[in-house]
């Protein structure tokens, strides 16, 4: 709830503030290291989108679009499962798990289209559509993750239906700034019959999220 504002997680708070008190937004943080682990062991941070139910907010979804939105926490569930696997295998890493857990609900205090939200990183986001909430809640968690300067950050999310439109239901989209890491992940996916498709982080795309009143807008153009 309001503790998120005091701790400087305003974007997570904005997305989840309209939920009932018993489902107030949270940032769940878990840290683990194997017993006797060297202090210079690699730091691995997992971040999972935890939208426990997504009505779409004031840009409300239709009945068919909303029916399965209890599954919008799939990224968080996958991150939690991966963290459990790391711990079970006692892998030699310093592990951090972050889950921004929210419900995108509708109420008089819900965040609105046209609102401008300041994030933990200091970036101002104009809300073009309240149903593009996952990226808004994730940005605070990712900024917090970066503050720890980990060796590797992996974030997982049921982020957008556009990925399914582009690639189909059986081929998840992969974004990665390292071409070598991306190639390795794609190759492993092929070996395990669990494929990924590397998507471009093409800088000219940034023009599609520029805003005249904020740093960026949470919905793209074109």
Describe this structure in words.
This protein is α/β, with parallel strands linked by helices. It folds into 2 domains: 156 residues, Zn peptidases (Aminopeptidase); 63 residues, no CATH class. The chain is 29% helix and 21% strand. The chain is built from 7 helices and 10 strands. Strands 1, 2, 3, 4 and 7 form a 5-stranded mixed sheet that branches. Strands 5-6-10 form a 3-stranded mixed sheet, covered by helices on one side. A hairpin with a 5-residue loop joins β5 and β6. α2 packs antiparallel against α5. It is globular. The mean pLDDT is 97.
What's the structural blueprint in terms of helices and strands?
Elements: H1 3-6, H2 10-16, E1 26-33, E2 43-48, E3 50-54, H3 63-66, H4 74-88, E4 94-104, E5 116-118, E6 124-126, H5 134-147, E7 152-156, H6 161-167, E8 173-174, H7 179-191, E9 197-198, E10 216-217
Parallel strand pairs: 2-4, 2-7, 3-4, 6-10, 8-9
Antiparallel strand pairs: 1-4, 5-6
């Amino acid at each position: 709830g309001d503790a998120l504002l005091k701790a400087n997680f305003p974007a997570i708070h904005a997305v989840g503030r309209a939920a009932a008190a018993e489902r107030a937004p949270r940032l769940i943080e878990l840290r683990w290291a194997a017993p006797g682990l060297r202090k210079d062991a690699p730091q691995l941070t997992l971040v999972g989108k935890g939208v426990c139910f997504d009505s779409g907010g004031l840009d409300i979804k239709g009945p068919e679009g909303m029916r399965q939105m209890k599954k919008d926490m799939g990224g968080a569930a996958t991150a939690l499962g991966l963290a459990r696997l790391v711990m079970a295998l006692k892998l030699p890493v310093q592990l951090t798990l972050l889950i921004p857990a929210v419900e995108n609900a509708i109420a008089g205090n819900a965040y609105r289209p046209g609102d401008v939200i300041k994030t933990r990183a200091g970036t101002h986001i104009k809300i073009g559509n309240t149903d593009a909430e996952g990226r808004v809640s994730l940005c605070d968690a990712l900024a917090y993750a970066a503050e720890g300067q980990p060796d590797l950050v992996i974030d997982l999310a049921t982020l957008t239906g556009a990925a399914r439109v582009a690639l189909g239901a059986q081929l998840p989209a992969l974004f990665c700034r390292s071409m070598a890491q991306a190639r390795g992940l794609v190759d492993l996916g092929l070996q395990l019959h669990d494929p990924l498709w590397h998507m471009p982080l093409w800088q000219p795309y940034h023009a599609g999220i520029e805003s005249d009143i904020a740093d960026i807008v949470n919905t793209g153009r074109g």
